[in-house]
Specification:
Elements (H helix, E strand, L loop, with lengths): L1 H66 L3 H14 L4 H16 L3 H14 L3 H17 L3 H7 L9 H14 L3 H14 L6 H11 L6 H10 L1
Helix pairs in contact: 1-2, 1-3, 2-3, 3-4, 3-5, 4-5, 5-6, 5-7, 6-7, 7-8, 8-9, 8-10
Length: 225
């Protein structure tokens, strides 16, 4: 009975050896790939978290400098963040804060360079859109109307659509294209929430151009709220 068991056990061992001889390399390779992928995933998450924490420290420096209205310190801190952690959410936020301080200090060229980076390279679409909107405002101030208009073209997240149309109306009005400006203001008015107080500002802009809000557009907006 013992011999029969030993023979049966030996046969199973031989079959197992044959199986591993045929498939062992492939199985080992697959395990290595899976384990390697898991390790890489964990490593990437660790790297991302570490990047985020270090970027947060630098953002605090930008925020502190902005609160003190120290434009030079803001510039240094933002340049450091942009060089070391450009792909983080904090970099885009820091750029928006830095540009505001520079504009307040009348450093329009510095603010323009920062906003160009935010508009192109910030991590989130919302940050990019806000960067484009503020860059357009700066370009309007510099009377660079064609460049401002370029920043306002293309798709934007829905929450920015009214602001982009409104700013586009400003550029067109200042460029002397009253008809196109009215159309842009009408679009902005229609896309604003019916309860928004800013609608009155757009209505004033339309009045200054001898136009009124299109009733159909207003009614359509009201029904979609």
């Amino acid at each position: 009975m013992a011999n029969h068991f030993d023979l049966e056990e030996q046969e199973q061992i031989d079959q197992l050896k044959h199986f591993w001889k045929q498939w062992g390399t492939l199985i080992t390779a697959a395990v290595v790939v899976v384990c390697g992928g898991f390790a890489a995933y964990n490593g990437y998450n660790y790297w991302q978290n570490r990047q985020g924490m270090q970027a947060a420290i630098l953002f605090d420096e930008v925020d502190s400098a902005a609160a003190a209205n120290d434009a030079q310190r803001v510039q240094r801190a933002f340049d450091d963040m942009k060089a070391r952690y450009p792909g983080t959410a904090q970099a885009g936020q820091a750029g928006l804060a830095a540009a505001k301080v520079m504009m307040d200090a009348n450093n329009l060229d510095g603010a323009k360079a920062v906003l160009e980076w935010v508009a192109k390279d910030a991590k989130f679409d919302g940050q990019k859109s806000l960067g484009r909107l503020r860059l357009a405002s700066l370009l309007i101030e510099q009377k660079a109307y064609p460049e401002a208009l370029k920043q306002l073209e293309g798709n934007v997240p829905p929450e920015f659509a009214a602001s982009f149309a409104d700013r586009k109306g400003d550029v067109l009005a200042l460029s002397g294209d009253a008809k196109a400006a009215v159309a842009a203001y009408q679009e902005a008015h229609a896309k604003l929430d019916s309860r928004s107080s800013y609608r009155r500002v757009i209505e004033a802009k339309l009045n200054s151009l001898g136009a009124k809000v299109q009733v159909a557009a207003a009614q359509t907006t009201g029904s979609s709220q």
